[in-house]
């Protein structure tokens, strides 16, 4: 029965792509795609609100499907999690990202942030530490800052494994961002326990800037909380100049959204970095 729900869910969210109709099992189809190396990284710049320069990029997975074209992650990440494929997919993605960036260091400012979305299940697996170490070994120390984005919708519970994992990640210099902040239920204690470095305010709050004062108040409360916790803020889904102005006036340090750039493949990213060297 749950399989039916998965299929219905995938259909409801799907545009023209219907993974579950054309394959015997979505799990089998995803596995095939993984082995064929069809999951590829796209990159969206994160902009420094003060200086306008590119502070780093977020890696966003795409499925380069042989017949369907580019498939967005909302269509396949939930299935990948269901079928226990998200960990090997992320591992492969990290290798791709490392390959994309390792030879291009001269085009990046030192301290450039590279963030990767990591699912909660992955944080129960100590191999993540080795994967991050291997990733960082491709770069001179300090040149790249690796950031793991953990969504607030999947709370990570503290266990012996996670405690050890987060301590080791910290030793490696890996930073932690809480993604989709405001949509979940993380408490102050939670944010302290996992020694979070960044809060990424969910897009749904950013879009409130254009709306009436009441919902804007909700965003202001979130900003207030983050400021008091002294955490660096990233606003996602910034689409208008008004939003940009509002957020930088309130001290949000990093901005990300279509106003600045869409997610793009590596080649386009490096071209953009060349065209605007101050980026
Ligand atoms: P997210 O981590 O919250 O990523 C931000 C999403 O907002 C991305 O959608 C991005 O393309 C989109 N976005 C950025 N700026 C704007 C804007 O100005 N306006 C609007 N309307 N949207 C904007 P995308 O790439 O489709 O990814 C959707 C979600 O899929 C991500 O949400 C993340 O939760 C998940 N995801 C993507 N890649 C991975 C991955 O490698 N691993 C895991 N576990 N999840 C991933
Ligand atoms: Ca994210
Ligand atoms: Ca996000
Ligand atoms: Ca989000």
From TrEMBL:
- Which reaction does this enzyme catalyse, per its entry? 3',3'-c-di-GMP + H2O = 5'-phosphoguanylyl(3'->5')guanosine + H(+)
Keyword hit for Ribosomal protein: no
The EAL domain extends over 23-277
What keywords are annotated for this sequence in UniProt? c-di-GMP, Cell membrane, Hydrolase, Membrane, Transmembrane, Transmembrane helix
GO MF, one example: cyclic-guanylate-specific phosphodiesterase activity
Q: What do the Gene Ontology cellular component annotations say?
A: plasma membrane
EC number(s) in its UniProt entry?
A: 3.1.4.52
Q: State its location(s).
A: Cell membrane
Q: Does the keyword Isomerase apply?
A: no
Q: Which superkingdom?
A: Bacteria
- Write down the membrane topology: Multi-pass membrane protein
Could you identify this protein by its name? cyclic-guanylate-specific phosphodiesterase
Native species: Phytopseudomonas argentinensis
Location of this fragment in the whole protein: 236 to 514 of 518
């Amino acid at each position: 029965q749950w399989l039916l729900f998965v299929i219905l869910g995938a259909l409801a969210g799907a545009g023209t792509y219907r993974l579950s109709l054309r394959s015997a099992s979505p799990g089998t189809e995803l596995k095939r795609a993984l082995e064929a190396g069809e999951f590829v990284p796209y990159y969206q710049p994160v902009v420094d609100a003060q200086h306008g320069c590119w502070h780093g990029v977020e890696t966003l997975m795409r499925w380069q499907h042989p017949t369907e074209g580019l498939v967005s992650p909302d269509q396949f990440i939930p299935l990948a999690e269901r079928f226990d494929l998200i960990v090997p997919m992320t591992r492969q993605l990290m290798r791709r990202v490392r390959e994309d960036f390792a030879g291009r260091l001269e085009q990046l400012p030192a301290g450039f942030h590279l963030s990767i979305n990591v699912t909660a299940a992955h944080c129960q697996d100590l191999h993540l530490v080795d994967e991050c170490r291997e990733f960082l070994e491709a770069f001179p120390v300090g040149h790249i800052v690796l950031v793991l984005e953990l969504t607030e919708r999947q709370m990570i519970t503290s266990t012996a494994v996670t405690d050890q994992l987060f301590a080791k990640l910290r030793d490696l210099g890996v930073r932690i961002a809480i993604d989709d902040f405001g949509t979940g239920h993380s408490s102050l204690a939670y944010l302290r326990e996992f020694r979070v470095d960044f809060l990424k305010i969910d897009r749904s709050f950013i879009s409130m800037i254009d709306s009436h004062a009441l919902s804007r108040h909700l965003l202001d409360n979130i900003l207030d909380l983050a400021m008091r916790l002294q955490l660096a803020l990233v606003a996602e889904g910034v689409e208008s100049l008004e939003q940009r102005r509002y957020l930088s006036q309130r001290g949000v340090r990093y901005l990300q959204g279509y106003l600045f750039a869409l997610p793009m493949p590596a080649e386009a990213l490096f071209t953009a970095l060349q065209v605007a060297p101050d980026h």
